[in-house]
């Protein structure tokens, strides 16, 4: 597969974690942020909300003239705690309260995925779910974590690849899904569109 024949891949997300996972898997997407107003999107359940947001982001970017011919990946994550969809906390106080309520419990990280083929006009989408078992950080540890600023920028106010990793006892499911994108699901969605993920691998640097 040459650079000329390899399909162009666009990530409709500004998440550095998603971009990093795709690059580690041999892909080299461009990043074009959708600008979708996430607060304007609603759905009956957290899983459906994550999917609706992913589909909205992918479709908005896919409609841009400059991405004609590309495959566009849209993703969005929310934490499902007792049926409530928790995205990024609004401020430090909310992040603190959320961590105090989550410790010692389990929630489900829902990540919606949508891949849009701008050549055929077809898309494939699905939600991946991973159970997250939270540890029991002390009030002092929570305060220090919130003060780092990290939880204000991630869905559910935590991430597996950052400072909150020591406060996560374990997960059941795909770890990449918790970080931001499920690579096995990306492979399956691409296959639905008739694209093999190996066809998108960037050449290895010599």
From TrEMBL:
Q: What class of enzyme is it?
A: hydrolase
Coarsely, its chief localization is cytoplasm
Q: Does the keyword Cytoplasm apply?
A: yes
EC numbers on record: 3.6.1.9
According to its UniProt record, which cofactors does this protein need? a divalent metal cation
Record's keyword annotation contains Cytoplasm: yes
Instruction: Write out the catalysed reaction.
Output: a ribonucleoside 5'-triphosphate + H2O = a ribonucleoside 5'-phosphate + diphosphate + H(+); a 2'-deoxyribonucleoside 5'-triphosphate + H2O = a 2'-deoxyribonucleoside 5'-phosphate + diphosphate + H(+)
Looking up SUPFAM superfamilies in the UniProt record yields: ITPase-like (SSF52972)
- Catalytic residues in the record: 76 (proton acceptor)
What are the protein's UniProt keywords?
Answer: Cytoplasm, Hydrolase, Nucleotide metabolism
Q: Where in the cell is it found?
A: Cytoplasm
User: Pfam families given for it?
Assistant: Maf
Write down the PANTHER family for this protein, in alphabetical order.
BIFUNCTIONAL DTTP/UTP PYROPHOSPHATASE/METHYLTRANSFERASE PROTEIN-RELATED, BIFUNCTIONAL DTTP_UTP PYROPHOSPHATASE_METHYLTRANSFERASE PROTEIN-RELATED
Functional description taken from the UniProt entry: Nucleoside triphosphate pyrophosphatase. May have a dual role in cell division arrest and in preventing the incorporation of modified nucleotides into cellular nucleic acids.
- Which family does the record assign? Belongs to the Maf family.
What is the protein named? Nucleoside triphosphate pyrophosphatase
| Biological classification of the source | Bacteria, Bacillati, Actinomycetota, Actinomycetes, Kitasatosporales
